[in-house]
Amino acid sequence: MQCGYPSQWGLSSALVSSNTIHFDWRRGGARKLHQARPWGKGRIEKPGHGRGRGMLLVTGGAGFIGSNVVASLNEAGRTDIVVSDELGSAGKWRNLGKRQVADVVPPAELTRWLEGRKLDAVIHMGAISDTTATDGDLVIETNFRFSLRLLDWCTSARTPLIYASSAATYGNGEEGFDDDWSPAALRALRPMNLYGFSKHLFDITVVDRFTKKAPLPPQWAGLKFFNVFGPNEYHKGEMMSLLAKRFDDAKAGKPVRLFKSHREGVADGEQKRDFIYVDDAVAVVRWLIDTPKVSGIFNVGTGKARSFRDLISAMFAALGREPNIDYIDMPSAIRDQYQYFTQAKVENLRRAGYNAGFTPLEDAVSHYVTSYLDRPDRYR
Prior knowledge:
CATH architecture of one domain: 3-Layer(aba) Sandwich
Strand order of the largest sheet: 5-4-3-6-7-8-13
CATH topology of one domain: Rossmann fold
Number of strands: 15
Largest sheet: 7 strands, parallel
Structural class: alpha/beta
Oligomer: single chain
CATH superfamily of one domain: NAD(P)-binding Rossmann-like Domain
Strand content: 15-25%
Number of helices: 11
Helix content: 25-40%
Order of helices and strands: EEEHEEHEHEHHEEHEEEHEEHEHHH
Distance between the termini: 19 Å
């Protein structure tokens, strides 16, 4: 998804220092671990009261995870939210069709809009998230340089920054999926696509500033999202989850096709991912908004890998049908770089104080199917 961020921001670099309590890789935990607070779906500060500063800005707020963040905040009673995104002409606006926001700012106008603003936080979800993107200049400008300018603004304005990183930074997984954000651990990662590389560059830059005790926002948190699925992903095309792409076939009685395995010891359809429901991903974002003393880079997954066969079988179960799955050869062009396993380590998030659970796959799929995919109105 291309968000159309501006090529020139001209934001000044920060000249202030951060005094937040960081979750520190160098000590295996927080410097001063805050008391864990239970997360409740309805827990949020009252609109207009926040931290006594201003509104919330959600970049990419009409996108998949961003629009679900907006929805969750609205459902908790908060409407002082500004979305920065491009809606285009393909119906992306429907992701916000049931929402109330204070403003929708085109990315090209965000620099001017930010001047003199006081915000409670910036939730930076906007990016080109297409893992097949090949325009290196556009992806770096949008995902890396734009993020740097927003980081500088948040630093100078003393505004918390919660941003989307990605599990794509882990590459083929040879280095594991441990969200150790020490400089050495980060530099050992080798992303396999341009999208993952752009996110990785930003992670390294933020951590480099932290290591050198350079100015940073009072709170900064990078979230390495794993395989997120749920409502409002329909504009993503081929980047949609397999559930969203194959639901209509399953509903029509057609078989769902999965790749055969081309690796010894792995059965067809048993390639595994850490699938996480979007509600759980949003809950982590909201917890960070409510816990401003926590900074760091965190995996956002369930910590339990499940197979594509499990995923699709759960979809058929939600429809009250027996699984109808065909297995097809994986295209030779992608066999050498195909990931057979991803699984987030979530210990960092737990040590930081996040104590909510994650929705079991079958329950998450059932909710997605019955509440959205199998209804005339699929939007949240």
